Amino acid sequence: MSDPALGLLMLCLIVVVIMMGFATAFTLMGLGILFGFIAFYVPGQAWADNKVFALMVQRTYGAMTNDVLISIPLFVLMGYVMERGALVDKMFYSIQLAFRRVPAALAVATLVVCTFWGIASGLVGAVVVLMGVIAMNPMLRAGYDVKLAAGVITAGGTLGILIPPSVMIIVYAAVAGQSVVKLYAAAMFPGFLLALLYLVYIIGWAMLNPRIAPRLPEEETRVPVPDWVERLQAAYSRNVLVGLVKALVAPARASGLDADGKPLGYRGILYNFGVALVPFVLAVVVFAGTWWYVVIHKKSIEAPEVAGLQPLGGAAVQAQAADETTSTAFYIWFAALAALTLVAVVRYYWRMDAARFTVLKLLSASVMPLGILTAVVLAVILFGITTATESAAVGAAGAFLLAFQARTLDWKRTKEAVFLTAKTTAMVCWLFVGSALFSAVFAILGGQGLVERWALSLDLTPLQFMILSQAIIFILGWPLEWTEIIIIFVPIFLPLLKHYNIDPILWGCLVFVNLQAAFLSPPVAMSAYYLKGVSPPHVTLNQIFGGMMPYMLIVILCMVIMYLWPGMTLWLPNYLYGG
Amino acid sequence: MNDMTVERFLHTIDGISTWVGKAAAWLIIALMAVVCLEVFKRYLLNAPTAWIFDLNNMLYGSLFMLCGAYALAQNAHVRGDFLYSSMRPRTQALLDLVLYFVFFFPGIAALLYAGWEYAGDSWRIGEHSNVTADGPPVYHFKTVIPVAGALVLLQGFAEVVRCIVCLKSGVWPSRLKDVSEIDVVEEQLALSEHVDDETRQAAIARAAHIEEAARQRGMGAGDNKI
User: Fold this and answer.
1) For B220, which residue in chain A has the nearest alpha carbon?
2) How deeply is A256 buried, as exposed, middle or buried, from its count of CB atoms within 10 A (0-12, 13-18, 19+)?
3) I need a surface site. Which of A320, A354, A502, B22 has the fewest CB within 10 A?
4) Does A22 contact B103 at a Cβ distance shorter than 8 Å?
5) Among all residues of chain B, which has the CA nearest to that of A85?
6) Do A534 and B210 touch (CB under 8 A)?
7) Nearest-CA neighbor of A497 among A517, A476, A469, A532?
8) How far apart (Å, rounded) are the C-alpha atoms in residues A508 and A514?
9) What are the chain A neighbours of B207 within 8 Å (beta carbons)?
10) Residue A17: other Cβ atoms inside 10 A
11) Interface pTM (ipTM) of the complex?
12) Per-residue pLDDT for B50 more than 90?
């Protein structure tokens, strides 16, 4: 048998053996060593001198010193600690109260919690089970359509593997030799676009057909306003913010107030005033941060570069001109957005009654710490201030701090998070050890070349190639886990991208979104079975799958949008790191 | 051998793999601390450390290599379980047994052999890292490869014995109890304030079973698979 034919045999065998259910890492290693032995076989040489052994150990050492993969255990640890530290139940409750006037409030809250949770952790099963317990029953009790309830939980639950910082993106970056930060920047918009499309779909459907998501009865949406807030209002002003300010200036009338049985005191008023200022502070920090990055930080980086270009003459002038035009556009956008936000914040404070204040307090206790930590970790990575590994380590340390502060992390949970991290890391990285050997042998045998020549001989247009490759990955997504797809099968397509002029970053993002659809497709989607396990008996699998179908179509719509406007995906990485 | 001795033998080997894996798992905390310190030193004190890159690699590389046997002992290595989960335990055991001999043992034995030579060479020449001019020694780090290979090989023997026991009795022998991802459901619900007690108890009781049922995708033969 010729060598390339052996390579193809290897590829077929790996598919067959994976389907037989043997641990993939060891299958890859075994196939690699067997076929590698044949590839390097020299008649007359002692078998122990075969070069495949050197290849194997070199590849293993390569995986052990891979500076991209090193951030995997850190991000995984961050996810597991957050998962044990943040309280989903409180998050769901406060978000649901915040959205109580929106149609299908419970479904919207479910989606928001899933998105948040997805940012924090990248695990599908646990999210679906948890949301199945916390959100499914309230939705069914409120008379929501079973399909709506089931669909939003399963679709929301799979978002976690897409939205950065996700481990899947690091694995793809290691496989494709792309930068992790660029891929994170690129996956931001598609991830949130998908969440937004889901949201539009839910709200739109509930507005067209209010019967599927009846409004909650009044007593369930009533905000549990603490007694002292009402008395503060009575003593000072209807507006809680104004009331708090007046209480700070003239604390005499507030002396009788007590919260949770203890007197409120001046410090209590100060603390609550701080909480009331949270939306304003957040808005200021976001805008100031953007201003600092674009106007101060980027200028200071660009300045020496422009100076370096001076001897080239025309080039420097052009660069300067381009810089100024982007700046003008930026100033206009910045001013418009800042004005809009200011109006929104002022309107919010204008109408700040007791209910709003209470919801704000609940939100800032349950959602904000997690939100701020992830935003900081992402911002530090995206703005190129630290590397992905450093941000991951700081993020993990931050997650520990948050969890200790919230008193949700004890010694047992810490141990659990550490051991789970070890198991997940071992799983992913041993897969890398196996696939590094496998793909090297596959290339040596000429299998990779054969596949490439065959694909080129098909003479596809880039669009056809795009559709074909995504369709293959979609079908592989039914029986396989994302780890196997990205580590074993994606590398086969990667060398072809250059021929069709497809950006590997755009293609990678399409793969990430694509896998969402694969994980929602009947009859293999695990999340459906997870949800079935916690739902009341009258919810059937068919109803759950029926609920998931529209989300699959939305994912495909999202992929079409991403393909038609590649700028949406590529704008942020290009803006932050240049083309 | 009677069943008790076999089970004790299996749990001894599982125990070795798990102990080493759990010990190595703490390297992640060391890695986190080292990187955080380095962030502090580099960005705030402007005093970067030259050998930190090597140290990070060593912590991370040792972590995942030494946890390989632990993951195997806990059945945590990813497998294409779409068809596998719905097979009867005897069929699963037969398939596994054959594939352990065809793929697992050649691959891991090669890793042990090649790693032994590789680390041996490194010890002989007293190899140092070439990332920086005066890098730290790497021979102990390279020794992790044959050690991890030996541990995984040992655990592999235990897995083969498991397959044989299952072929005889039709039931998978037990594994050591360990934390799993689905446990988070119980922990979250234990602290919840807005879920009623009955639902909470029911969900906690069913959580482990749900994971199993989902893996079998409704086609499972029963609940006797571990």
Assistant:
1) A529
2) exposed
3) A320
4) yes
5) B188
6) yes
7) A469
8) 10
9) 129
10) 21
11) 0.90
12) no
Contact residues, chain A, for B76 at CB < 8 Å: 423-424, 426-427
Please name the residues between 147 and 176 in chain B that touch chain A, using a CB distance below 8 Å.
none
CA-CA distance, A209 to A204, in Å (whole number)?
A: 9
- Asked if the Cβ–Cβ distance from A530 to B214 is below 8 Å, we say yes
Q: Which residues of chain A have pLDDT under 70?
A: 1-2, 119-125, 219, 253-262, 299-326, 579
> Does residue A61 sit at the B interface (CB-CB below 8 Å)?
yes
DSSP A453-483: HHHHHTT--HHHHHHHHHHHHHHHTTTS-HH
> Are the CB atoms for A417 and A77 separated by under 8 Å?
yes
Task: Establish if A483 touches chain B: CB-CB under 8 angstroms.
Answer: yes
- Are the beta carbons of B110 and A33 separated by less than 8 Å? yes
Token code pair at residue A88 = 């989903």
Among residues of chain A, what percentage have pLDDT more than 70?
91
Tokens in use for A330? Answer: 């930026």
CB contact under 8 Å between B111 and A29, yes or no, is yes
For residue B149, pLDDT beyond 90: yes
| pLDDT tens per residue, range A361-420 | 888 887 887 788 778 777 877 777 778 888 889 888 988 888 887 777 788 888 888 998
For residue A523, say if its preceding peptide bond is cis, omega within 30 degrees of 0: yes
CB within 8 Å: A480 and B142: no
Residue A41 has what pLDDT?
Answer: 83
- Residue matched to tokens 């911002």: A379
pLDDT, tens digit (0-9, with 9 covering 90-100), for A508-518: 999 999 988 88
Two tokens at B47? 């005093």
Please list, in sequence order, all residues whose beta carbon lies within 8 angstroms of the beta carbon of residue A101, skipping any fewer than 6 positions away.
none
Contact (CB, 8 A) for A378 and A184: yes
Distance from CA of A81 to the nearest CA of B (A): 10
According to DSSP, the residues that pair with A262 across neighbouring strands are: A259
Q: What is the pLDDT of residue A312?
A: 45
Q: How far apart are CA A115 and CA A202, in angstroms?
A: 15
Note whether A60 contacts B145, CB cutoff 8 Å. yes
Q: Check: CB of residue A36 under 8 Å from CB of residue A127.
A: no
Model confidence pLDDT, tens digit, residues A263-306: 777 777 788 888 888 888 888 888 888 888 777 777 666 555 44
Instruction: Spell out which residues of chain B touch residue A485, defining contact as CB-CB under 8 Å.
Output: none
pLDDT for the residue B63: 92
* pLDDT at residue A314, rounded to an integer: 45
How many Cβ atoms are within 10 Å of A549's Cβ, its own excluded?
A: 14
Residue B38: count other Cβ atoms within 10 Å of its Cβ. Answer: 20
Q: How far apart are CA A403 and CA B94, in angstroms?
A: 45
Could you tell me how many CB contacts below 8 A there are between chain A and chain B?
285
Q: In this predicted model, what pLDDT tens digit does every residue of A228-260 receive, in sequence order? A: 777 777 777 778 788 888 877 777 766 666 666
Q: Radius of gyration (Cα) for chain A, nearest Å?
A: 27
C-alpha–C-alpha distance, residues A364 and A368, integer Å: 5
Residue linked to tokens 């571990």: B226
Assess contact for A412 and B18: CB atoms under 8 A.
no
CA dist A81 to A86, A148, A400, A478, Å? 8, 31, 6, 30
> Is residue A251 left, alpha or beta, with left meaning phi > 0 and alpha meaning psi from -120 to 50?
alpha
DSSP helix/strand/coil, A259: strand
The predicted-structure confidence for B177-207, as pLDDT tens digits, reads as follows 877 777 777 777 777 777 777 777 777 777 7
Q: What is the pLDDT of residues A117-126, one digit of tens each?
A: 776 665 666 7
Whole-number Cα distances in Å, A117 to A113, A120, A142, A159, A262: 6, 5, 24, 9, 34
- Cβ distance A56 to B110 less than 8 Å, yes or no, reads yes
Axis-axis angle for helices B197-216, B183-190 (nearest 10): 170
Q: Do B206 and A534 touch (CB under 8 A)?
A: yes
